[in-house]
Write a structure and sequence with these properties.
Strand content: 25-35%
Largest sheet: 5 strands, antiparallel
CATH superfamily: Hotdog Thioesterase
Structural class: alpha+beta
Order of helices and strands: EHHHEEEE
Shape: elongated
Length: 137
């Protein structure tokens, strides 16, 4: 991959994850040290008027990070940000996608800007984001 062959509109190979389950949430809570009970305690979630626990927003961001680093070396990542647009519930199967939306140079370094998204199996966006990647010429 290089700057001259990449085109605006090109897409990254999608990343589809297994459905979210309680084990995934427990493992992510341990790995991230985010033990917010809304993500791991069904009684707490129900007291908060939720039907059940749901995924950490940062889990979805981590999935988008994996999408990026399966495409380029992490040392090429210059910017990465997201906004959370929906709740990822148990049983949702998340697919991460990315699309090139801009090519530019910054201080002589060729870069591309990507729009990123996670969506469930129903096509509902859960996280929207963007990233800037340095690419060779």
């Amino acid at each position: 991959m290089n700057f001259n062959t990449i085109k605006v509109g090109d897409t990254l190979p999608p990343l589809t994850l297994p459905p979210i389950n309680r084990t995934t949430l427990a493992l992510f809570a341990g790995a991230s040290n985010d033990h917010n009970p809304i993500h791991i305690d069904i009684d707490y979630a129900r007291r908060a008027r939720m039907p059940d626990v749901f995924a950490h927003g940062m889990l979805s961001m981590a999935y988008l990070g994996r999408l990026l680093t399966q495409w380029v070396d992490q040392r090429q990542l210059r910017e990465f940000g997201v906004r959370f647009t929906g709740i990822t519930h148990l049983g949702h199967q998340i697919t991460c996608t990315g699309k090139v939306v801009e090519k530019f140079e910054h201080e002589g370094e060729p870069r591309i800007r990507l729009e990123l998204q996670t969506a469930n199996q129903y096509g509902e966006a859960k996280v929207l984001g963007d990233a800037v990647i340095a690419v060779g010429t």
